Every structure is written in C-alpha cells, then in structure tokens.
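tool_call: predict_structure(chain=1)
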Amino acid sequence: MDVALRLADEYALDRAWSWAFPAGSLSANVATSAPTVKDSLSALALSIARLGHQGPEVFPISFTSPSSPLATLQDASIFPRDSVVRQLTSLFFIAYGGSFLLYWSISTLAYYFLFDRRLEHHPRFLKNQVRKEIVLSMKAMPAMAGLIVPWFVGEVRGATLLYDTLEEYGGGWFKGTALEGYGHWAYLTFSMVTFMAFTDWCIYWIHRWLHIPFLYKRLHKPHHRWLVPTPFSALAFHPVDGYAQSLPYHVIPYILPINKYVYFGMFLVVNLWTILIHDGDMINGHYLQKFINSPAHHTLHHLYFTCNYGQYFTWADKYGGSYRPPREDLDPIHDAVKNMDRKRKLAEKEAKQALREQNKQYADPSIEKAHESDSGYEGSEAELDNKPAVKVSHIRTASKDESHDIRRRR
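tool_result:
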C-alpha cells in the first residue's frame, strides 16, 4: 500500500492536507505566544499531528520531479507524510475508496454480463434482494476499511517483509548450477505459491469456524441470507465476518518476504475473485473444477451451507471432508426455470379466466339489453332524443283539442 499512498499523496492528498491543515498554523502560534491553556492545546495538537514523524527520508521515492509544483506541497501541512495520524486517515480513505470503486465496477459488470438473470425467479431468491445486498455492502465497507487500516499502516512504515526489487531474495538459489541466475525468479514463484496456499488454507478454517452456531448466528448469518447470491452479495456481510476472512492476506507479508508489487497485484486478484465467485455460474464438466473452487462450488455453499468453504482451491475441502462437487442436477437454474414456467402458466390461467368472465358477461341477454337501454349517465343523448318527441306530441294534441273547442263555441 505504500506505492498507492505515495501516488495519492503526490497527486491529491498533499493538496488536501495542506488546504485543511496548512503548515505553521499551530507551530507559529506556539512559538510566538505566551504559555496559555490555548497554546498548550495547540502544542498538544502539533504533537499529535507530527506523531511518528521520522524525517523526510521515510518516503524516499518521488513520482514527481523536484521542480514540479506538486513537490512543493509535501511540506505544506502540519501533518507530514509519515505522521501516523495522517497515514491512518489517508489509508482509510484509500481502502474505502478502492473497495467502493472495485465493488461498483466489477459487481455491475459481472451482474449484467455473467450472472444469469433467470436465477432471480428462483423460489428462494428474496424480494428486492439486489437492493438489500447493495445496502448491506454499503454499510459494511467503511467499517471494514477501518478494521484493516492498521495493517496497512504497519506495511507503509516498514514493519513487513515486503521488498522492492527482484534481486533482494533468491540470489543464492541454484548457485554453481546451470540454473544460476534464475534464483530470484524461483523465489518469486515460491512466494506466490506460498501466498496462495497459506491464505487458502487459513480462509478455509476461518470460514468453517464461522459456521459454528455461536459465531454463525452473530457474524456469518447476514451473508447467508442470499441463498441464490448475485455479484452484489460479495461484500454483503457483517464487517467482522469480512475482516476475519481477510486476515490471512494482511498477516502473510509480516511472516513471508514477498515483492511488494506482486503482493499488491495478488491482493487485487483476491478482491476480484471474491466478487466473481458470487456470479451463480454453474458450468459443469470442465477438468479444472476438480481443483479450482469455482463459482459453481460457492453457489452450492450458499445453497447447502456445509460444503465448499475454500477460497481458490478444493484441496482443503477434500482434506476436511466438506467437498461437494458441482453436478448438473444441483444447478439452481432448473428450479428457476420451473418457477418461471409455473408463473407463466398461472398468468395464462388468470388471463383465460378473466376472458371467460368477460365473455359470459356480454353473452347474458338481460345484461346486453341493460347496456343498450342504459347509457350510463343522466342526460345522455338517448334520453335527450326521446324527451323532445314526447313533448312535441303533447303539444300537438293540445293544439288539436284547443282548436276543436274554439270551433264549437263559434
């Protein structure tokens, strides 16, 4: 994370920290004022700001030239780059922002291009499940970032065994043999394999322990609300649950020398894999499924709970007796398609029933006669057409009688 922090400092955070906490705002007050309570608090604040400061050589690598305007901002804040307070704060926002961007970008792409949307019709797919997954993920992310930041600070401050250049480890391997000179690459490969094996083995047991009833009820149960998961469920869990399963990735650089750039790349792959194994894909029959803990294996874990706890490989589950191989008949898409067909038939039945009721209504002669005689509202054209005829007839009759009376009088 030190490379990410340096990049963030030089291109964004130096400016932000110098704007929020400009240099001299507290030190000048302490140097020129009488010792008052306010000045004592200022001195305390300055001490906190520079907590852990060890001088400018803590971050020797610079991505900008000394003449760059960005370089002048390095000392423009009361919080130097190597202040523990600044590192904790900066790394929190880097971790939170990185997980936020990764979640929304990769989960969205996986949801629309990999996830079979027919699974949303599965009988055990919750109402508004995608929205609920996103809401829980948004709540978990900042807490997760806060929990893992101390590990990143230790990494940045040199407490790990991460190294910069390829030549630092493995130089003595194969010395005096035809493979001399390839020891650095051999050690790099060894460290990568060890990283994968160590983290996979540890996560298997951490994940399995989280299914112990006491821990499951308090920590892991929220993640298993999604019996048919989508890519948006990858981070939808209790923060402590997610933190516990991420611990092996943070512990290993403290016990194993590994190239920092390789470590960063593998850490990124870990996060991508966490999202992709939740895409509900149940492709069967490929040779690698015997060894790789694929989305098909993890889908079965969500459906049946007590199988396939591993992260990358199946070897830990086979060793622990919890392996369940994917099979065509276990694919949840079958139940989803059946439920879709049931809903379609139900909708067709209701539509036919409504049509029969409508036809029955119009086939009844009394109803049809009522429809013809009743216009539906008072003062209709039919009523107006009848009323004048009656009035005219009455007037004409009256006029006839009146003329007869007149003639008789005469």
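agent: The beta strands are 162-163, 258-259. Proceeding to next step.
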